[in-house]
Amino acid sequence: MIKGDTLVRGNATSVLSNEEIRGLVQMREEEKLAHDIYITLGEKWGVRIFSNIAGSEQTHTDAVKVLLDRYGITDPVTDTTVGVFSSTVMQGLYRDLVAQGEKSERDAIIVGATVEDLDIRDLSTLKNMTKNEDILTVYNNLQKGSRNHLRGFVRNLPAGSQYVPQYITQTEFDGILSGSQERGRV
User: Fold this and answer.
1) Would you say residue 11 has pLDDT above 70?
2) How many domains does the chain have?
């Protein structure tokens, strides 16, 4: 069983729209982006949060892969090498965010928060584009993980540092931080 199977319920019950297909392809690479950034920055700085969350991101990308396979969608991840992406957008984000995170440990943790901030925003958008139960289940689980990861990165910022959300609203960010660690599958 692929680790991501635990985040997926149900069977393929419908034909997907083009938006749903694009969303799954995007999230497969976006979850790989998070994984690869955390592996790279974890090796650079030796900060435990990166290795811990990289494992979760692998489970997330595996969950999206289960859906791609279930619906017969071509997997955009043709090379699992860290830092290699099919999408030029993801390739550019990887390059830019790693460069930012290599400046300092503080910058690396801010990059981690930024990646989770982006994931939360994108998952909200994608959830509004589907009514498919198994896709919504995966997106809800991924978003819950991203909220937990965002809390973790913000908690690991050095004293006197703060993260200002780049993609979600300040109100949503404040609500996430004031919430507690979320457990279990959605």
Assistant:
1) no
2) 1
